[in-house]
Amino acid sequence: MSAHFPALIVVSPLMAAMVVAILAWVRPGACLPLAVVTLAGSLWAAAGMLWRVVVSGPFAYHLGNWPPPIGIAYQIDHLNALVLTAMAAVALVNLLATWRHARRDFAERVNYFYALYLLFCAGTYGIIVTGDAFNLFVLLEITSISGYALVGMGKRDAALASLNYIFMGTIGASFYLLGVGYLYLVTGTLNMADLAMILPRLYGNKVVTAAFIIAMTGLFMKMALFPLHGWLPNAYSESSSPVRSLIAPLTTKTMVYVMVRVALYVFPVDFSFGHLAFAQPAVWLAVTSIVAASLMALSQTSLKRMLAYVLIAEVGYMVGGFWLGNRMGMTGAILHIVNDAAMTLCAFLAVGSLRQQLADDSFKALRGAFRRMPWTMAVLVVAGLSMIGVPPTCGFFSKWYLIGGALAAGQWAFVGALIFSSLINAVLFFRIFEIGFFEPFAASDHGHPPDLAYAEAPATVIAPMLVTAAGLVVLGLLTGRIVTRIIDAAIPAAIL
Amino acid sequence: MKRFALLAVLLFGALLVYGTTDFPDWGDPSSPAATHVSPHYIRHSLEETAVPNIVTAVLADYRGYDTMFETSVIFTAGLACFFLLRVFARKAPDSRLYRHRATGITLRIEQGGRLPEGAREFERIDSQWVPYDLIIRTACRLVLPFIQLFALYVVAHGHHSPGGGFQGGVIFGAAVILYAISHDLRSTLQMLPERRTVLMSAGGVLIYAGTGLICLLLGAQFLDYAALAGILGVDPIMARSHGIFIVEIGVAIAVMAVMVSLYYNLASVGRFDEGL
Amino acid sequence: MTAAGYINLIIAKYNYWIYIVLMCVGLWGMIVKRNLVKKIIGMNILQTAIILFYVSIATKKGAALPILAHHIGAHRTDPATIINPLPHVLMLTAIVVSVATLGVALALTINIYKRYGTLEEDEIHDLMRNA
Q1: How far is C79 from chain A (nearest CA, A)?
Q2: Which of B197, B195, B227 is nearest to B214 (CA)?
Q3: How far apart are CA B259 and CA C6, in angstroms?
């Protein structure tokens, strides 16, 4: 059975989603346990594949028993397996932490929420394991459509935010499809490994250049790199909290993974980094993204929107670190995919838990939060420290690699942007901590304590959050082992 | 803003046109796309899958995994519309119209009113009531069986002529929607209730994925139909042909159910009481 | 390039240019138009243009449909006489994807109309700001 993990990890959430949709009409109580069991199974399969890759190297899986390029092939290597394990863990922990909130937010539709959740996860896992460029497009669309539906079911202005998300997401996916079409036109194949073999012969072909630029633009749009980030703040702040803490860690990070995969394993390395002179503008774009997003985060008055802009800045880290072109920068970028997924999950879980109890979304409502919700705020503190980059949390280590890579490549602007962003994050989070902890009952209340009628979240919500917060520290401590045994093997030898 | 957008779009167009200068000529049989992978499909698909329609063979066998996800995409769309639009609240609508069958007198019941006694003689009609049209109703009732038969023909003949699961499923769904438009939504809901459409759409995708899973449990790769040879009692190549047919049936059921479900949700805005 | 060269270039590539123009039209409609339904139509035009682009990759001069039962004789499986089936297969999937996206977009538009009573984006922004 373990030889079939690459297919099972995608197919079992898919079939479970169908079964949940049927059970919702027949036996509603069984939907949540089925979803949890399926996601736990997927995590186990992902960990099994990671183990197999680390021990015996990359392997392939041919669907329908047709060899590539005739059929579709899945290729599991170090990069795949690491990102897959991280995403599977995030999806499972999120479901365990937020099912209560989901039940409150969605009432009688909650079983369809589980079905869409499982479809979203199936699509995400598929994007990560696939080795076929068109299969990636189809899975991208499954993920996107279930994401649009999940976001659209929030409160107030969620429908308009989701519609704008549809527009920008469709343009991004269509650009990717067009890039694949251009590549197909001059190579005749869709399989990624086959493309990597044929493309070096096509050096200097204008079609390949156009394909690269179009596909990259589409991916930048889907990962919300400035200035194509317009959909993200609205979509993330208007959706309901179980959806937000699912989509925020998974969507943009998966798109960064696709960018790494396309630029390293489909197009030749010296084409992406040498021939095309794409790397330097990409780094400048990343610098602009980090600075602009950090400044916009400063001006927000709502906790959710502030975190959304911090997220956009994190995407800038990964894009800039990757396009530095040296091994240290790429290690930082790939490490940051995993770390940022964990940090984002941690932060948004804490914010979701706060939001369920607090009156509204402004900073003022956080007064005295440390006293009433100590565990939730502790988790938020750990997430904030990780985003600022304080050791031993994982955020410090990926920043370390990114700054080291930038210094080695002489990209002083990127170094400056990273440090600037860390300072801004420090200001943002310490402002929250100050309001939550130190701000006494302000003079405007005339000495009366504010109406702290809310209580701490229940234990079933706190436990997964604490696991995530502990995971941030554990990931930080395990950085050395992750880098040497997995990420080093994931980057091609041609990168120095 | 408009000028900036125009500039961006023109830049995009210019980039694409720049790329076309190195394209192979249109219709060139020696272009890379025509000489790399597709000749294998053209030369060998009949002997490997026993299906003369190469497009169906590629769609459901060589690239069958993509098609499974395509069916899931359509299922996701149906599920998403249901999730977004369905209104479960049992709030009475503002006014309901009833028509007495024998005499044709129309009643309007405002909110909070009750139906008069002898309610079985009254039938509910839509708020945007259109006069009973004998010609439309009779013509549609006569035509519908032929449309459905044609849909089944398209599904079954996907091996030998253009057709297959998606096309047949859409035609069948269109037949049901024709009934809903020519008559009204409530009688269509009696014929094909909401619960059955959801079960059918999930069931169709499960047929597809289940076939692949059976192949996996029999020891072969996922979606390797040759493994079904033992169960079906034919040689592996015919088993591929039968496997393609089974998954096409699954696709047709799923697509038909989703088309109908989409119509139900969009036309009645989730309330499932009145349609277009 | 000579005049004959230019004419050859146009004949060889004009279909792709038409589809690129369609894509630009769809993209422009999505970005510039303020009515939500017009934006959705623009999205559909963009996706349809990409589908047509792929399908036009598949043609071969003088070739026939990829259904082997209709061919007789030695030309039965000669790749030069049968069009490329792979882009058609890919675009069956892309059509379904565009229909699914359209369905979800329309459902969201219905929800927006239920909430705001209008489908013009600037009016919706005014209502949101004044709410």
Answers
A1: 14
A2: B227
A3: 48
Q: Count of domains in chain A?
A: 1
- Assign domain C3-62+76-130 to its CATH architecture: Orthogonal Bundle (1.10)
> Radius of gyration of chain C from Cα atoms?
22
Nearest partner of A146 among A125, A174, A123, judged by Cα: A123
Neighbours of chain A (3+ CB pairs under 8 A): B, C
A320 occurs within a structural domain: yes
User: Which pair of tokens denotes residue B262?
Assistant: 């989409």
Taking an 8 Å cut-off on Cβ atoms, the answer to whether A141 and C97 are in contact is yes
Whole-angstrom CA distances from B48 to A478, B42, B193, B234 are 50, 11, 42, 14
Task: Kindly report whether the global pTM for this prediction surpasses the value 0.80.
Answer: yes
Between chains, do C53 and A152 touch, taking CB under 8 Å as contact? no
- Rounded to two decimals, the ipTM of the complex is 0.93
**Structural domain boundaries in chain B:** 44-90+132-267
Say if A110 falls within a structural domain: no
Span A435-453, pLDDT tens digits = 877 765 554 544 445 555 5
| Residue-range definition of the domain harbouring residue A495 | 280-496
Assess if residue A145 is contained within a domain. Answer: no
> Under the phi-then-psi rule, with left for phi > 0, alpha for psi from -120 to 50, and beta for the rest, what region is A446?
left
Q: Are B269 and C110 in contact (CB under 8 A)?
A: yes
Chain C neighbors of B166, CB-CB under 8 A: 92, 96
Chain segment A262-312, per-residue pLDDT in tens: 998 888 888 888 777 888 889 999 999 999 999 999 898 888 899 999 999
Mutate to test the interface with A, among B35, B49, B69 (most CBs of A within 10 A): B69
